Amino acid sequence: MNKITVIEGDGIGPEITKATLEAARAAGAELDIEFMSAGANALKEEGELLPAKTLESIKKRGVALKGPVTTPIGKGFRSVNVALRKTLNLYAAVRPAKNIEGVKTHFEGVDIVTVRENTEDLYAGIEEMQDKDTARSIKLITRSASTRIARFAFDWALKNGRKKVSVITKANICKFSDGMFLDCARNIAKNYPQINFEELLVDNACMQLASAPQNFDVLLCPNLYGDIISDLTAGLTGGLGFAPGANYGDGFAVFEAVHGSAPTIAGTGKANPCAMMFSCVLMLRHLGQAAAADKMERGVLKTVKSGFLTADAGGSATCSEFTREVIKNM
Ligand code: NAI
Fold first, then answer.
1. What pLDDT digit, counting tens, does each position of 93-144 carry?
2. Domain hosting residue 74, numbered range
3. pTM of this prediction?
4. Which sequence positions are flagged as catalytic?
5. Of 172, 204, 236, at which residue does a domain stop?
6. Overall number of domains in the chain
């Protein structure tokens, strides 16, 4: 039995979390769950976006499964996700994107993993109005965090039998910040002669990803490019409804879908729970519950392959109908 924290989140968060936990239980996952809140719901009910007791629970339990939370654009509060990643020092986001049989896509044979630095870059939150017509955001990149994420990406590649790591920057323009990120990646790459190392500028990387994504393997990215590119790779492999994610730090791990709270479809039954279910599969593997992870993954893959799909993937199943089918197919 593993102790975990679960945050249902906002929008479609509660629906896909309920679906995911039902499927996990049916697959035999042994989870002792503490439900905690964060996001717009937490603000309404507890007056805080990221209550201290939610953080305490994750710190005590070490592992969390998190639904998406709403962050208003522009003025207002800072992102809960950014705060969570910074507070727990969840420095590495790992976002796999792989073709799934039964999901229509433009390309076959895509199997890409984005490893995104999760604590710095424009997400450091150093932003100010210099005067009423001039805004300034600082892109913060440090040698220690860049080296740490590069080492993580190469270690991950090695452990998972991957062949190539492509580092993605705009080092020709951001010579100091991205230049240093690239320099750190080059230094770490020297220690991994078994892994091919490739350097790409982010604009060229996007063009190549959109035209020949099969050529890519592991992508090592600073925070902003990783955020954008992992949505791009999600689009290549079936859309946000299928894209899982994991955030790792020293001693903590938070598993969550790449997508957001999708407020326009919340409560309509249209949410695709696959991304959250795949995130849960990653969590179960992390916890050493491989049999339950395999069973849950099998159920999802078989359901999708059979053409039983939610609306975003061209089907008509609701979130709960899809979940029942997953459980039947385990
Ligand atoms: P979004 O990912 O919520 O939605 C983008 C599009 O994808 C929408 O058309 C939505 O309906 C669709 N979509 C997303 N997930 C889906 C699913 N599981 N099934 C079916 N369709 C799905 O991104 P958006 O609209 O930019 O952001 C909405 C809110 O979510 C914002 O407040 C944003 O800050 C927040 N957000 C939270 C994240 C997190 O908590 N990890 C990540 C990204 C955004």
1. 999 999 999 999 999 999 999 999 999 999 888 999 999 999 999 999 999 9
2. 1-90+242-330
3. 0.94
4. 123, 170, 203, 227
5. 236
6. 2
